[in-house]
């Protein structure tokens, strides 16, 4: 355009009108371009969010299944420990009853042993008396053979009874020692069972605590 035409108001008006139209078209093109980009980004964001949510749901579902399996395992272990504790308690009570019976039997044997010891002591005293009487009778007269034979027979009988009681005494001692050993073994096993029960109860409490934590989680 010439300088003269630029100074013409009509020409300048047309130029400005043309520039406004071009500017408006340019703005519209930019708006359309950015609207398209924004829409595309929105679609991408929505797709990414959906994928993230699906992945997160899968992760949570897997974690839930794993926690459920672990809780089930803890429950099974808990039931097993409870059954084991019940079995050990039953065995402990049986051993306690057996130990009590052995203790009573031991007291009976001790009482019987004491009675036999007293009987043996009396027989020993009687034996000494007869020995003294036999010696006195032998010294007093050699002609009293009949009496001496009777006393000798009585002495032999008493001696046989004494020997029999001595053997019975040894048998009772053996029985007493055997019973005491059984009682000692039973008490030892009872102590072991007590420690085992305490250990199992501690494990049971730990499993219950873990189970409670898992359930709370």
UniProtKB/TrEMBL annotation:
Coiled-coil spans in chain: 57-210
GO cellular component terms attached to this protein's record: centriole
Keyword Transport on entry: no
Domain of life: Eukaryota
Keywords for the protein's UniProt record, in alphabetical order: Coiled coil
UniProt entry tagged with the keyword Coiled coil: yes
SUPFAM superfamilies the record matches: Tropomyosin (SSF57997)
The protein's name: MPP9 phase
Species the sequence originates in: Emberiza fucata
Taxonomic path: Eukaryota, Metazoa, Chordata, Craniata, Vertebrata
Gene: Mphosph9
